[in-house]
Amino acid sequence: MRIRYWVGLVLLGTFLVLLMGGPVYAEPPVPIPEASVRLPGAPPFGVPKVTDQGADGATMSPVGRRINVAITSEDEKDPAVALCAYDQYLVVYERGGNIYGQRLTSDGALLGAPFAIYDGSLKAYSPDVACEWAHNRFIVVWTVDYNNQGVDYDIYARGVYGGHQTSGSQLHGSMFVVSEDVAVEQNPAIACNSNDYTCLVVFEYDGTGNGDIYGQRISVGTWDNSLDGDRFNISDFTAEEYEPDVAWGGFDNNYLVVWQYWHDTPSDHYRIVYSHVFDTEQGNGAEERQHVGTWLINVGTRDHSQTNPAVAYNRDTRQYLVAFQYDYYGDGSDYDIIADRVAGTGTTGIGSNFFVASTSSHESEPAAAFSGGPESLPGGMGADQFIVTYLTDWDTLYGQAVKGSYSTSGGQLEGDPTNLDRTGGVGGWYINAADVAGSINNGRYMVVWQYHTSDNDIFGQIVAPYGVYLPLVLRNH
Ligand SMILES: [Ca+2]
Ligand SMILES: [Ca+2]
Ligand SMILES: [Ca+2]
Ligand SMILES: [Ca+2]
Fold first, then answer.
1. Taking the domains of the chain in order of start, what are their residue ranges?
2. Which long-range contacts (C-beta less than 8 Å, at least 24 apart) are formed by 259-262?
3. Which ligand is nearest to the CA of 46?
4. Which of 54, 318, 433, 477 is surrounded by the fewest CB atoms within 10 Å?
């Protein structure tokens, strides 16, 4: 069993080092297990460095053709996707400095035309979206440049109906400000608590140059959406803290917030940290976190930069999966994807971290989803399975099925990685910013990504999980 220490303890340890003038190690040295699986010498291009990950030869598979989600001559970038209660997807993305949306059925057919969610005078970036299931309402959040001068960014939000509106606006309620301090507030991620009709937005808050992680709750109402309580600190150490993601643990009454934290002892690199945050507003300035930042993987293991975390929740087994990008050699020459499981509550790890993708080429920018979507029920339509998608530097997008809960035998992966884009490999970084969501209806996934040709477009692909039960009659609502 791994012992986890709060970030605060490590900082205290650092302080003690300075105070006592000698080294104080908060944790005993831990052997680095990857040394035992490292093949001698540099493997050739694209060859797996790590084997015996439990792959059984079966794969998840793309269903149907690649979907043209947004292919106008304008730049369409940085998509995010969520599913709502009518089993319709909403893909949100930046289009020419504005925020747009496109609905799709759970089978991947476009529903209606693209519509503007924000087309104001400020440059808008980096949208994310989540569904508040009880109201069947999407909440979209994004970053704006406060004065279009690149020095002060804020976070805005707007509601979108959960189902396609055949007439009238697709938008619900008013646009509202999530956070607009004199600071750089950017890179928001959102998840929603359908039991409490609220959502949690997590974002980077940078007022002093070292990047903190803050949260702001949103109340989803019948007629409009608004802020719920005040902005609160999730992590504001003097270290750089960036790239937050969040998932709702519906059966555990919390959210899991993950981010990357700059750790300069014993060596300079980012490490993934997480906090469970209560999924309801605690009120009266009470602590909103169930615990402060905790190492996903203890110092002493995976001691090169861990970045770009993504988190998803499995309601069947009440476990979170956190995937991140890992700088294998510490010199940026070979990124891999590693994942680890986090219990629904507490700070005790589940099993060991494991490689999701580990060839000698770059694998980067993971996204994660659970097969049954955010509201799946035990025994529901989805497979007991996560998908982790990632990009490679030979211009492909891959998906890897991960078992829904920790397996004590046979590895953590299901099947082989599956090429989801299949454009033939142009080379370089033409693919970017993938995201993924699961569906309650058929257990499939919707993967979306940005692709650059003469301009940037948004593509999508439905993916069937391996071993999913496919109902003959689709669920009606
Ligand atoms: Ca600001
Ligand atoms: Ca900080
Ligand atoms: Ca790699
Ligand atoms: Ca375009």
1. 7-22+45-464
2. 259/202, 259/213, 259/234, 259/235, 259/309, 260/306, 260/307, 260/308, 260/309, 260/324, 261/7, 261/235, 261/237, 261/293
3. 3
4. 477
Centroid of ligand 2 to alpha carbon of 147 (angstroms): 24
- Ligand at minimal distance from the CA of 391 is 3
Distance, CA of 374 to CA of 87 (rounded, Å): 11
**Ligand 2 mean position to 241 CA, how many Å?**
5
CA of 245 to the centre of ligand 4 (A): 27
Q: 213 CA to middle of ligand 2, Å? A: 7
In the structure, ligand 4 is a single-atom ion and the residues with CB under 5 Å from it are: 76, 455, 457
**Which ligand sits closest to the CA of 77?**
4
The residue behind tokens 């924000």 is 118
Q: What distance in angstroms lies between residue 329's CA and the mean position of ligand 3's atoms? A: 10
Are the CB atoms for 216 and 189 separated by under 8 Å?
A: no
Ligand at minimal distance from the CA of 143 is 1
- Give the number of whichever ligand sits closest to the CA of residue 359: 3
CATH fold, domain 7-22+45-464, is Neuraminidase (2.120.10)
What does the block give as tokens for 248? 């709702």
Give the ligand whose atoms come closest to the C-alpha of residue 93.
Answer: 4
Please give the distance, rounded to the nearest whole angstrom, from the Cα atom of residue 163 to the centre of ligand 1: 32
Centre of ligand 4 to C-alpha 298, Å, is 43
Which residues have CB under 8 Å from 457's CB, separation 6+? 68, 69, 70, 71, 72, 76, 450, 451
